[in-house]
Amino acid sequence: MPRKVHGHDTRYVRLQKNYCFACGLNNPDGMRLKFTVDEERQTFVCRFRLSKRYTGPPGHSHGGIIATILDEAMGKVNKLRHVVALTREITVDYLKPVPLNQPLRVEGREVSVHGRQHINMAEILNEKGEVLARSRGIFIAIDPGKMFGRFIER
To answer: Boundaries of each Thioesterase domain copy (predicted)?
Structure first.
């Protein structure tokens, strides 16, 4: 029996090129974050290191980069429901400075869904498993054909 899909089915939506700053492989100036899904835990995970290019305070990441990574992790979670959802609002708790040139991971997961509104959360953790930053976001599911029609491969 086919799995019931909630929202807009986006499995066959293919962008001509992906220039997303956070995850796009076609953006030469982007971060090129690669996420994997942990189906058992229903989370999206990315392991990464931040180079000096992303410096804020000496030896640590800029807060805007931290917010970008958390936003991307939360956005990926919407794929679990086969929807394209855009960020409406995010809040970020900067708990500890995020170091440069250290192994880090970000994990995103769903909190709840109310109609088109998807509430997700994400955390950036260091090698010891300490949470360095945490976010909560509201995403609104959209019809990608209507919004991005001219950018989608046919």
So the answer is: 59-132
The span from the CA of 47 to the CA of 31, in Å, is 12
For residue range 33-59, what is the model confidence (pLDDT) as tens digits? 999 999 899 999 999 999 999 999 999
Dihedral sign, CA of 73, 79, 84, 89? negative
Give CA–CA dist 34/7, Å, rounded: 25
C-alpha 54/C-alpha 47 separation (Å) is 16
Non-local (6+) Cβ contacts of 76 within 8 A are 23, 35, 44, 108
Report yes or no: 94 and 131 within 8 Å, Cβ to Cβ. Answer: no
Fold of 35-148: Thiol Ester Dehydrase; Chain A (3.10.129)
The pTM of the full predicted model, rounded to 2 decimals, is: 0.86
Residue 148 has which token pair? 């991005």
Rounded-to-integer distance, Cα 125 and Cα 70, Å = 11
Q: Please, which residues have CB within 8 angstroms of residue 146's CB and are 6 or more apart in sequence?
A: none
